[in-house]
Each structure stands twice: as C-alpha cells, then as structure tokens.
Design brief:
The protein is of the alpha+beta class. It has 10 helices and 19 strands. Helix 3 crosses helix 4. The protein is elongated, with a radius of gyration of 23 Å. It has 2 domains: 104 residues, Sandwich (Immunoglobulin-like), CATH 2.60.40; 260 residues, TIM Barrel, CATH 3.20.20. Bound molecules: zinc ion (ZN) (2 copies).
Length: 394
C-alpha cells in the first residue's frame, strides 16, 4: 500500500481518468515487441513463432527478411517451416537441400563475435518443415527442432496418411517437436470446425504429435483449443506468415503477430524445446492470451498488479491503480466485491500503462482485495481467467 497520497493525486483521480496511450504515435519499434517480464517464480516468458514461410516454399520473401522481422518483434526464436510437398517456386528457386532456407536464416541471425570474443546469438533459428497433405486428412503438420529436413521427405508409394505417419516418426527420431497446423482451415474443413478425426487421434496416441495450433495468423479456434485440453497437447499460436508481418498486423496500434509464449527456466534452445514438450505455453492472438489455467494465470499475475491508496478525505472511497506490465491491453471486468465510483465494471488497462479507479465502500484499504476477470484471456473455450489481486507493495 502506498503510504503517501499527494493532494495533486487526489485531484487527479477525482478528475476524469486520463487516457493512457500505450502506443502513442509512430513508435512501432517499441509497440510491436512481444516482451513480457519474468514470471513471479523466476521463469522467463519467451515469445516464439514456430510456423513461417519464405520463397523456399510459398512465401514471398528471402529467409533473411523473416529473421529481421522476428528480431523487430522481440522473438526469442523462430522456426523455418517450408512446405515439404508444395513447392510452387521450384522452377525459379530450385533447391535439392531442404535445409537451405534454415541455413540462410540461421546465417542471417548469427552475430559476429564482439570485442570480448563472445558470439552473441540474439535470435534462435529452428530448423523445421511443414508436412503438407492436400487431402482433408491428415492435412498439415509442422515438425520443428529438426537436424535434417531432407529426412522428412515423404516416402514414395505410400498413401497420404501412412506417408505422414512416417514423416512424424522421422521428426521424432530427430528429437523434434511436432504439431497439428490450422485444424479448422476452411480449405480442408469447410465448416471451420476442428474435430479430432481417427487419423490425428492415432498420431497423438502413438506419441508422434505433441501440439496443436489454436491460433494461426488471423484465425482462432475454440474447437482446436478444446482438442488441446482434452488430449494434453501443447497450445500454440503461430503467424504462418507468407507475406510481411508489417502488412498482416496493425503494429502501429499495438498489434502483435500471432505467436506462442513459452514459460521456461532456461533461455536456451534446449530449454525452449523442453518447455514446449511439457506444454508450458500460452498462445498470443490479437491481444488475447489462450492457454491452460496455470500458464495463463502465471503470465497474468506477473504482469498485472494493484496499488491501493488512502481513502479520499472523509470517505471510504479508495483510489486503486491497476498496473499492466505486459505488451497486451488487458480488458478487465471488476468482479468485486465492490464496484468503482468512477468507472463501469469493464475497462481497459492499456499495455505498459496504469489505470486508476475509485473503489467504493472500502472499510479498510489495507485489506482490500479485488477480483478481476480478464476478458482477453481464455483458459477454456469461452472461459476467462479470474484473479484476485491485493496490493503487495512493501
Ligand atoms: Zn499449412
Ligand atoms: Zn504454413
């Protein structure tokens, strides 16, 4: 609890709440970064994008552009995941080595040793491939953390399901992490509803398939989210970028690429892979946080706090500052126990900003606890996270 409250602050909170603009002006460089502070338990929150394309499949850019975008977005890691079976630019860009896109991106990400001789690597580039079956099943799946993408090429003479099964086995033999891509994509699922078919159920049962995209680019799927929760799959968001991040997202107004937050104690590629396999993730999609309760709650509790002031003179009305240390706007519903004197029940605390409200009827400000439902978080389809917050200021 703050000990002092100045007359100026009291006047300030009595006046209409100032509009805190987190993404003021053209400071896109700052606004676009998916930068989260560490969790309260000390783990890091690493933003990663495990699904990208370049001209080495059906993307529109050279792989070094993907690297530059990822750096600008503050990602810890990005995977190169060209289509194995779909090569519309092969006549112009022939390449027998399916690791080539990764090699170029990895080279672009490697920073020369500095004066101290330390070879700094500001972005981890992960080798990957997209298994691409045009039939409805098994559709598309990504395999990342590969050591050799060439070994992922489909074997001749097999049907699509058996070929995909062999490819997943090849990825697993390399220690890879695999996931089901856009299982609701209307090109392969015309009603837009993801359903767990026997083919993928079998891949999951065999331990060959570890995760699922609940959000891909501009899309999100409640049904994919439910499949993830029901089958203990890692929850992922990816951009599946083909064009430019700058064209697909409203970066100037605080937009972020669709990505995954990985909660890990170790900021290394191995630590990242272990956390992915353990399911310690939250998908970030259009400023929504989507994941298992414990993971979403860990992120929210490390980025949202309250500070409680002394009551206004001769009242039991207490100024409460709600502080958002995350790069996403939190849309909060005040679930009580009391409402605010000067706000509706739902309000937005912009990224990196503080929002002050006056809470009514607080007999003892030192004991105030407020429960907020974070409407831009999902811990199950259509279910938001609620957190009770207290002022923990020493
Ligand atoms: Zn795909
Ligand atoms: Zn793709």
């Amino acid at each position: 609890m703050r000990k002092l409250v100045s007359a100026a602050l009291v006047l300030a909170v009595l006046a209409p709440a100032p509009v805190a603009i987190a993404h003021d002006g053209p400071d896109i460089a700052r606004a676009r970064r998916v930068a989260f502070p560490k969790l309260l338990d000390g783990r890091s929150v690493l933003a990663v994008d495990l699904h990208t394309h370049s001209v080495f499949s059906d993307g529109s850019v050279w792989p070094d552009v993907r690297v530059e975008e990822a750096k600008r977005d503050g990602l810890f890691a990005m995977a190169v995941s060209e289509h194995l079976e779909y090569q519309p630019k092969a006549a112009d860009i022939p390449h027998k080595d399916r690791n080539r896109s990764f090699q170029i991106a990895n080279q672009a990400a490697t920073v020369k040793p500095d004066a101290t001789g330390v070879n700094k690597q500001p972005l981890v580039v992960i080798n990957g491939s997209e298994i691409t079956k045009l039939a409805i099943q098994p559709g598309h799946m990504n395999a990342v953390f590969l050591t050799d993408a060439n070994a992922m090429m489909p074997k001749a003479g097999l049907n699509a399901v058996d070929a995909a099964c062999e490819q997943l086995k090849a990825a697993n033999a390399q220690g890879g992490f695999t996931f089901w891509n856009h299982p609701y994509w209307t090109s392969q699922t015309p009603n837009g509803i993801a359903t767990l078919d026997p083919v993928h159920a079998d891949f999951i049962k065999q331990g060959l398939l570890h995760g699922i995209e609940v959000a891909n680019g501009a899309d999100m799927s409640d049904e994919a989210f439910k499949i993830a929760l029901d089958n203990n799959l890692t929850i992922l968001g990816t951009s599946d970028i083909h064009g430019l991040i700058d064209w697909d997202y409203d970066l100037a107004n605080g937009g972020h690429r669709t990505a995954t937050l990985v909660l890990t104690a170790t900021e290394t590629a191995d630590g990242l892979k272990a956390a992915l396999k353990a399911g310690a993730t939250v998908a970030i999609y259009n400023d929504n946080l989507v994941g298992r309760r414990e993971n979403v709650e860990a992120v929210v509790r490390s980025t949202l706090k309250i500070e409680v002031d002394k009551p206004l003179p001769n009242t039991t009305v207490v100024p409460v500052s709600v502080i958002n240390d995350s790069p996403v706007d939190y849309i909060l519903e005040n679930a009580g126990p009391e409402g605010a004197y000067d706000e509706a029940h739902v309000f937005t605390v912009r990224a990196g900003s503080t929002f002050t409200l006056l809470v009514k009827n607080v007999p003892d400000a030192s004991k105030l606890a407020l429960t907020f439902k974070a409407l831009n978080t999902y811990i199950a389809p259509r279910e938001h996270l609620s957190v009770q917050l207290r002022d923990l200021t020493p």
